[in-house]
Amino acid sequence: MNYQYVSSNDLSTAVQLLDTYKVVIKSNKVMDSVAERLAADHPGITNDEIRDTISMSSVDDTGVLKVTSQTRDPQLSADICNAVLDVAPS
After folding, report:
1. Does any domain span residue 70?
2. What is the largest CA-CA distance in the chain?
3. Residue 2 located in a structural domain
4. How far apart are CA 76 and CA 70, in angstroms?
């Protein structure tokens, strides 16, 4: 059997990359793409409005990024999160 181990250094690096990824996700380029995807169902929503609803965090100090959006409309929040995940660089 071939077991692969993830070192604490690997996890530390992944967590550090999340900080960079958070900045990239909230960049104008990504927010422009998110706004374009939302335009049909949510006309008039702006990059700043989208950006202000988004929060991101690592899941239990892992390299997994959790993206949430909080608005008055649960569907809009879900649409924002889904659009971010669709357009964010991977």
Report:
1. yes
2. 56
3. no
4. 9
